[in-house]
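Predict the holo structure. Ligand: cytidine-5'-monophosphate.
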Amino acid sequence: MTVRVPAKVNLQLSVGPPRADGYHDLVTVFHAVSLYDEVTVRPADRTRVLVTGDDVAGVPAGRANLAVRAARALATVGLRRRGRPAVEIEIRKRIPVAAGLAGGSADAAATLVACNELWRAGLSPAELREVGARVGSDVPFALLGGTAIGQGRGEQLTAALAAGSYHWVLAFASGGLSTPEVYAACDRLRAAPAASDGEEGPGLSMALMAALRSGDPAEVGPLLSNDLQPAAVSLRPDLRRTLNAGTEHGALGAIISGSGPTCAFLAANAAQARELAVALTGAGVCRSVLRVQGPAPGASVVTTASR
Ligand code: C5P
């Protein structure tokens, strides 16, 4: 059973103060893009994970892997009366690791969909999202896909009314950023005397919602926002150059995706995205670039053989 699952960028990421449980209340607008991991699950004598792809060094093995945790969570919830079957989980990785693109959550989401089918567990999409939320804050969105508003830890989703298709250029950095470390840096920056934001709960940008309904990237671009961006840039000052290079070469919007370090640039159309990708490569401000489109569908079973 093979499932394809998209990466995400955040069009808005507004972060509240830290909660008692260590998480932060968010208002975010998730947007799935056409960069996919593929996950295959097969019955096995014990649950294990195999990862293939270009850059898999940072992917945890065994229980620390979110896909393994997802399979275990589904077996516990979905198969209570039927034992706990083991699976081999093969992840073909294209979404870079620790990049702010929710690749680990994507693999967990794909594993939930694949095991739900393989085991005929019969969970509904809403039930799968509930199990996914226990595995990671971004897992429910990787199941849903499209463009959606996330609240709470990011796991409470409402589909957003978004028109059209958006052309993005992703600029990948060498190395990753740890999400907890970026949130901690955000808290530290806000505790500094000059910082004034973050005192009130985060709110959804109505201007961004209207722009998304219009489907016009020129309206959406200037409204992209990410409260984690100053924290990510403080940990990786080189990202400032990457963002500036995109803006100088005509990107309608330039933003760090999630906790970074991937930078996402919104282009007016496919031709401008091609030009921007060439310019960013030439400027030498990132490890590599990739053109993608959003919104992309959430985790879904691949019906034809993919290899
Ligand atoms: O939920 P997930 O395990 O993906 O979150 C990873 C880490 O990101 C958390 O341990 C926490 O440090 C941080 N986080 C947060 N607030 C959120 C989501 C994630 O502080 N809403």
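Residues 166-294 form a domain with the Alpha-Beta Plaits fold (CATH 3.30.70.890). The two ends are 13 Å apart (CA to CA).
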